[in-house]
Write a structure and sequence with these properties.
This protein is of the alpha+beta class. It is built from 8 helices and 7 strands; from the N terminus they run H-H-H-H-H-H-H-H-E-E-E-E-E-E-E.
Length: 251
C-alpha cells in the first residue's frame, strides 16, 4: 500500500514538473513571437511538439510564426497539420487560406464526387476516440434490443426491438468504420507540401528525365510512390511526375 502511494506521488510530481516546463517553454515562445523573433518562436514551438507531443494549437502557432517569418511553405505545412488533427479549427482554416494566397501556382483542383465530399465531411466532424465511443454505445443498445427481442413479453415491442437491433447493428459498424478511416487519415495519409522555392517535375526518377512542369513553395501534392531519393507525386489537377524527396515534407 505504501509503495503504491509513493509511486503515485512520484508520478504526480513528474507530471507537474513536465507541465511546468511546458508552460515555461510556451511562455518563452509567446514572448519571442511578441518581440518579432518569429524564427526563434517557431523553433521553440517545434521543440515543444517534439518533447511533449502534437496538438492543433501548437501547429497553429508554428504556422503563424513561419508566416510572419516569410516562410510560406512551412506556414502552410503547419496549418495543414493543425487541420488534420482538428478539421473544424476555424482560425487555422482562415490563416491557411491567407497563406495560400502567397502561392505562385494557381492549380485548379479536381473536386471529388459530391457523395465522397459529404462522407469525408461527416467523418471529420468527430475525432477517432469519439467515433469509437459512439460505436461502443450503439452496440450496447443493440444488445439491449436483441435481449428484449429474445426475452421480452410484448410481441409488438419485441418486433420493434428486432428491427431496432438490426438498424443499430449497422450503425455500430458504420461508426466503427468511420473511426478506422479517421485514424488511417491521421496515421497513413499521403499528402505533402512543396518546401523549396521552385521545383522542376520530371518524367522519371532521374535528373536527366524530361522536364514536365514546375511547382513552387507551398503547393500541396499527393504522394503516389517512392524510389530511392525520388517521389512520384500527383497534383490537384491530375498532373503526375517525379521530384526529389528532399523538396517536400509530409503533412
Amino acid at each position: 500500500m505504501k509503495s503504491k502511494i509513493i509511486l503515485s506521488a512520484i508520478l504526480l510530481f513528474f507530471s507537474f514538473t513536465c507541465l511546468t516546463a511546458q508552460n515555461e517553454e510556451l511562455t518563452k515562445a509567446h514572448n519571442l513571437y511578441k518581440k518579432a523573433d518569429y524564427q526563434g518562436a517557431a523553433q521553440v514551438y517545434e521543440d515543444i511538439v517534439t518533447r511533449y507531443g502534437v496538438a492543433p494549437e501548437l501547429y497553429y502557432n508554428i504556422g503563424n510564426a513561419y508566416y510572419k517569418a516569410g516562410e510560406v511553405g512551412r506556414s502552410i505545412l503547419n496549418y495543414e497539420r493543425a487541420l488534420r488533427l482538428s478539421p473544424n479549427y476555424e482560425d487555422a482554416k482562415v490563416n491557411l487560406e491567407l497563406a495560400q494566397t502567397k502561392i505562385v501556382d494557381n492549380i485548379v483542383q479536381i473536386p471529388p464526387f459530391f457523395i465522397q465530399r459529404w462522407i469525408d465531411s461527416l467523418i471529420k466532424l468527430l475525432d477517432v476516440d469519439l467515433w469509437y465511443t459512439i460505436s461502443v454505445v450503439v452496440f450496447v443498445f443493440t444488445m439491449l434490443c436483441f435481449l428484449y427481442f429474445i426475452f421480452g413479453n410484448n410481441l409488438i415491442i419485441r418486433r420493434f426491438a428486432f428491427y431496432g437491433a438490426f438498424i443499430l447493428l449497422i450503425l455500430t459498424f458504420v461508426t466503427g468504420a468511420f473511426g478506422l478511416i479517421r485514424r488511417n487519415e491521421l496515421q497513413n495519409h499521403n499528402q505533402a507540401i512543396i518546401m523549396t522555392g521552385t521545383v522542376v517535375i520530371k518524367s522519371s526518377p532521374d535528373k536527366s528525365g524530361t522536364d514536365l512542369f514546375q511547382l513552387h513553395e507551398g503547393t500541396k501534392v499527393n504522394i503516389k510512390s517512392k524510389l530511392d531519393e525520388w517521389t512520384e507525386i500527383v497534383v490537384g489537377n491530375g498532373n503526375i511526375g517525379w521530384l526529389e524527396s528532399k523538396t517536400i515534407e509530409k503533412i
